[in-house]
Amino acid sequence: MSKVSLTKISEILGMSKSTVSKALNNYADVSPGTRKKVQDLANELNYKPNIFAQNLRSQESKIIGLLMPEIVHYFFSTIISGVAETAEKYGYSVIVAQTKDDYKNEIKQLELLLDKNVDGILLSLADDTIHFNHVKDVINQGVPFVLFDRTSKLIDCNKVVIDDVKAAQMATQHLIDIGCKKIAIIRNQLKSQGTIDRHKGFKKALLENGMVYDKSIDFEGRDFSFSAGKIAGNKICESHKDVDGIFALTDLMAIGALEALKEHNVAVPDQVSVIGFSNWFLTQITTPHLSTVDQPGFEIGKAAFNLLYQEIQNKKNNVKEASKTIVIPTTVISRDSTK
Q1: Which helix (H) or strand (E) is 253 found in, with range?
Q2: Fewest C-beta atoms under 10 Å: which of 150, 205, 241, 317?
Q3: What's 61-161+298-330's CATH class?
């Protein structure tokens, strides 16, 4: 069955295509009777508008790009859900791409999204991205652009973040409040703003409670992985047996540390309390269940799209606004891995 067109409806009703189009779009200069005739016939014939043609006329693709370090990742998957569900309500499709946490691939994927003529881009920076000309070039081209989660203070654009300093401080304070006296931190390299800020929050909590920051129990991994957490956990068990608290910058790192403690027969939380960061689903099925900081990915994704949509509308209407940063609240979730 061939697709019904505006031309077909106009021929049947003996009206011009422009009148039919206006009637379908509820223009005020078309009489109610004419609008009803056109809309009733369109429904009867199951008419579907040509979205491609509409978008071509409006110079919009109705597609946005969503670029993130990983796709198969619980936190980022919740962001995808938040973006996609919100975008759908406004008639937008989402192209999702990943950088694999690689700076060069980030540049490549941004170029590919621009080639698709997307109406705007959402980006979470790769962990090793420390130069930002590729991002600034996109913004300078006038492409609506929002950074989320992993951002940089050196880029002037709209952003959606959590307060990483405050969140890390809260996590460390939780360990202090339950009586931990010697707290280790497991983290990635101090490159990304998020890692830097969480490290600051950890040290700030120690300082405000009169505790000494000990560089020897500040463990730096090559990434945010289970393996990095387990390596640090093994070092704690072998060389720092006075540690009674561990703050890991990701849940995977924390779970790796839990595995190391288990293999060394260290009781959690009786001997060592452990808290992670993000609130992955896995934290509810570890043994013991992992205390963590809830990083609400769905809400981040929803806020990021809404901010991008506003930027798209501002571009259409030639409206200029100063860049803004939306901060999504976080909470500490206390489970069995802390006393």
Answers
A1: helix 251-263
A2: 317
A3: alpha beta
